[in-house]
Amino acid sequence: MSSHEGGCHCGAVRFAVETTDKPEEAPRTALCHCADCRRCAGAPVMGWTAVASSTFRVLQGSPAVYQSSELAERSFCGRCGTGLFYINETVLPGLVDIQTATFDDPDAFPAMAHIQAAEEIGWMKTAHELPKFERFPEF
Fold it and tell me: What does the alpha-carbon distance between residue 29 and residue 131 come to, in Å, rounded to a whole number?
């Protein structure tokens, strides 16, 4: 068993996930392209790590909760605004979906799939072909 921690930008909210070798409790990861995630994150794609609710706990702080649809709740830091968790017991029963980039070590949870690709922004199909710079480019 190993523990993975994470939190918001300002540090007010911290959380932990205990991972085990049990296949039924293995985290599931994805890059979501749905319009709802894009609007909530202000980003073209959102990385998610779904974990069993029983393996997840908030260590510090009290996240604010936004009822983003009839069935779903999105949690975020009320101080700095960082998006943190998504809970939808109808679609993802028994799971907490954590925004992968909020883990202290997001490399521990590599994406396994792209989901909601039907809603993908058109230019994302070729985004991997764009030039890359280690830091800010000089234009």
Answer: 26
